[in-house]
């Protein structure tokens, strides 16, 4: 059983479960927005993207962010997914991170967008 993220209960009052594609999307989101040091038992986990959204917007920063995200996804989810592309684009007060990926055992590519408020280290 895959736990739903963020943790919640289902209609029966039990721990919520998610389907495989939703579960992998939830795992990607956790890697993207968990700050290194935030998890006590796994202090290296995460990507550090939350700290980068406070930096000035520049082409070099977008390229560095893409590489940071790709390496974090490979490190933490490399056994589950293959990442084809990552794009990082600011739009107003939100940073949109778009990841194109597929599950290792699947041949269908999926594209998911993960919005993150800029100017917020959440």
How do the helices and strands line up, and which of them pair or pack?
Blueprint: H1 20-33, H2 49-52, H3 59-77, E1 81-91, E2 94-103, E3 110-117
Antiparallel strand pairs: 1-2, 2-3
Helix pairs in contact: 1-3
Task: Describe what is shown at a glance.
The chain is α+β, with helices and mostly antiparallel strands.
What would you note in describing this structure?
By secondary structure, this protein is α+β, with helices and mostly antiparallel strands. The chain has one domain (20-117): Roll (Nuclear Transport Factor 2, Chain: A), CATH 3.10.450.40. Helix content is 30%, strand content 24%. The protein is built from 3 helices and 3 strands, in the order αααβββ. Strands 1-2-3 form a 3-stranded antiparallel beta sheet, with helices on one face. Helix 1 (20-33) crosses helix 3 (59-77). It starts with 19 loop residues before the first helix and ends in a 5-residue tail after the last strand. The mean pLDDT is 82.
Fill in the keyword field for this structure.
single chain, IraD/Gp25-like domain-containing protein, Nuclear Transport Factor 2, Chain: A, 3 strands, 24% strand, 122 residues, IraD/Gp25-like, three-stranded antiparallel sheet
Q: Globular, elongated, flat, extended or rod-shaped: what is the shape?
A: globular
Helical percentage: 25-40%
Arithmetic mean of pLDDT: 82
Derived from helix and strand composition plus strand pairing, the structural class reads alpha+beta
Radius of gyration: 15 Å
Largest sheet: 3 strands, antiparallel
Query: How many runs of DSSP E, i.e. beta strands?
Result: 3
Work out the helix count.
Answer: 3
Q: What's the number of domains?
A: 1
Domain IraD/Gp25-like: 21-100
Protein name: IraD/Gp25-like domain-containing protein
InterPro entries: IraD/Gp25-like
Pfam families: GPW_gp25
């Amino acid at each position: 059983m895959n736990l739903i993220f963020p943790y919640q209960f289902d209609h029966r009052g039990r721990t919520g479960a998610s389907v495989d594609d939703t579960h992998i999307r939830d795992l990607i989101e956790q890697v993207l927005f968990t700050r290194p040091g935030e998890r006590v038992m796994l202090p290296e986990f995460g990507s550090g993207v939350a700290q980068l959204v406070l930096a000035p917007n520049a082409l070099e920063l977008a390229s560095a962010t893409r590489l940071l995200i790709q390496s974090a996804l490979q490190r933490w989810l490399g056994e589950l997914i293959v990442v084809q592309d990552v794009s990082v684009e600011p739009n107003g007060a939100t940073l949109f991170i778009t990841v194109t990926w597929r599950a290792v055992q699947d041949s269908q590519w999926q594209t998911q967008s993960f919005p993150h408020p800029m100017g917020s280290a959440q």
